[in-house]
């Protein structure tokens, strides 16, 4: 059992995602537990304010240290093994290898910033890792936390019905997944490649490798360069 804790001002931006499909099943099967902490509940000021102007000027508001410090200290006290993950556009890129690695932790805490971000002292004090999910800026960390949670969750033993689906996937060997097809063999004049219908599994496997390489070269020349220099 792994626990995902979400530190967020907007629980509903995250909780909806666990109400359907695979992640719901992971919770129902006791493979995953989720919990929420709202930093606003930990404020010590009269108006429960969680944000303030930036020191030294700069556009927009930042999340203040006090409510987050108190929230995260409380989580640490309850759960010494808690591992703190901060989504931020200024983090390192989140990759499949991180999803696999983090699936082995017992307690992950995702700390979502809002407004222009979080006072850096919170990150310095608590972050075990800071991740970006891509080179663009979201309005808050919630979506990024969900993206990482989803990618991590499907690497937890028992979450996916079929273990093979993890083995063949994109990024497992720095190569994109080969195109795949289902029935019917012909749809609106578009055919499944004939080799796929003949049942020679070795040939199909080779064809898939070639198609995967072509796809990688077309869509991700950066990955393709890596597979060719090995
Ligand atoms: N918060 C805002 N933008 C983000 C991004 N690209 N990745 C992770 N967290 C973020």
Question: What does this 3D model show about the protein?
Answer:
The chain is elongated. Helix 3 runs parallel beside helix 5, helix 4 (96-102) packs across helix 6 (142-153) and helix 9 crosses helix 10 (221-228). It folds into two domains: 2-153, SPOUT methyltransferase, trefoil knot domain (Alpha/beta knot, 3-Layer(aba) Sandwich); 170-228, tRNA(m1g37)methyltransferase, domain 2 (Trp Operon Repressor, Chain A, Orthogonal Bundle), CATH 1.10.1270.20. Strands 2-1-6-5-7 form a five-stranded parallel sheet, with helices on both faces. A two-stranded antiparallel ribbon has the order 3-4. A two-stranded antiparallel ribbon has the order 8-9. A hairpin with a 7-residue loop joins strand 3 (51-53) and strand 4 (61-63). The protein has helices at residues 12-15, 21-28, 65-78, 96-102, 120-126, 142-153, 164-167, 195-198, 201-219, 221-228; strands spanning 2-7, 32-37, 51-53, 61-63, 83-93, 107-111, 129-132, 186-187, 190-191. The chain has 230 residues and is an alpha/beta fold. It binds adenine. Adenine is lined by residues 87-89, 132-134, 136-138, 141, 144.
């Amino acid at each position: 059992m792994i626990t995902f804790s979400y530190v967020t001002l907007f629980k509903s931006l995250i909780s909806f995602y666990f109400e359907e499909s695979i992640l719901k099943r992971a919770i129902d099967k006791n493979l995953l537990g989720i919990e929420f902490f709202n930093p606003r509940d930990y404020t010590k000021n009269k108006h429960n304010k969680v944000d303030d102007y930036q020191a030294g000027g700069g556009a927009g508001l930042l999340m203040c240290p006090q409510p987050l410090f108190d929230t995260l200290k409380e989580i640490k006290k309850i759960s010494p093994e808690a591992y703190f993950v901060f989504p931020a556009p200024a983090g390192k890129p989140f990759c499949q290898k991180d999803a696999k690695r983090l699936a082995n932790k017992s307690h992950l805490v995702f700390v979502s910033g809002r407004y222009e971000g979080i006072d850096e002292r919170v990150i310095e004090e608590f972050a075990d890792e800071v991740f970006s999910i891509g080179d663009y800026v979201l309005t808050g960390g919630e979506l990024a936390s969900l993206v990482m949670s989803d990618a991590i969750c499907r690497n937890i033993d028992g979450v996916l019905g079929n273990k093979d689906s993890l083995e063949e996937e994109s990024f497992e060997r720095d190569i994109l997944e080969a195109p795949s097809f289902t029935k019917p063999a012909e749809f609106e004049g578009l055919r499944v490649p004939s080799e796929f219908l003949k049942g020679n599994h070795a040939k199909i496997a080779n064809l898939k490798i070639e198609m995967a390489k072509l796809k990688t070269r077309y869509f991700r020349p950066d990955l393709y360069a890596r597979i060719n220099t090995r």
